[in-house]
Amino acid sequence: MRIFLNLLWFFCGGALNAIHWYLVGVLMALSIVGLPWCRACFMLGTFSMWPFGRQVVSRRALTGQEDLGTGGLGLLGNILWLIFAGWHLAVVHLTLALGCALTIIGIPFALQHVKLAFASLAPIGVSVVESP
């Protein structure tokens, strides 16, 4: 079922969404200033392409160790991300979730948009893993 839903998601906008994330990641890498957010853009791009059966978890919870992204610098990076890009992306995903939820058949897609909205708010210091 995950494969079917991921394929349906991919052809109904997931690929376009991922391309957008990848282009933003390349632009951030080219700007040099955006390098801390570059990895997050590529991670969210892949996540937005195939969201069914995956979830976002803190790398601290995943590895049991603190790294650069899970410490104070990661917090600062997430605050800057939230101010300049995160809130906008979350509003877009929540709007799309509302539109999908209005159609009964779109509820699974609405739930994925909500997951992407939360991931868009603070992408530094997290990883995407397969759901159990």
Q: What's the Cα radius of gyration?
A: 15 Å
The end-to-end span amounts to: 14 Å
Rough outline: globular
The biggest beta sheet reads: 2 strands, antiparallel
Q: H/E element string?
A: HHEHHHE
The total number of structural domains is: 1
Task: Please state the average pLDDT score.
Answer: 90
> Taking strands numbered 1, 2, ... along the chain, how are they ordered across the largest sheet?
1-2
Helix percentage: over 70%
List how many beta strands DSSP finds.
2
Features:
single chain, 132 residues, mainly alpha, globular
Structural commentary:
The chain has one domain (2-130). The protein has a two-stranded antiparallel ribbon with strand order 1-2. With 132 residues, the protein is mainly alpha-helical. The radius of gyration is 15 Å and the shape is globular. The mean pLDDT is 90. The protein has helices at 2-31, 35-49, 59-63, 72-102, 107-121, and strands at residues 54-58, 126-130.
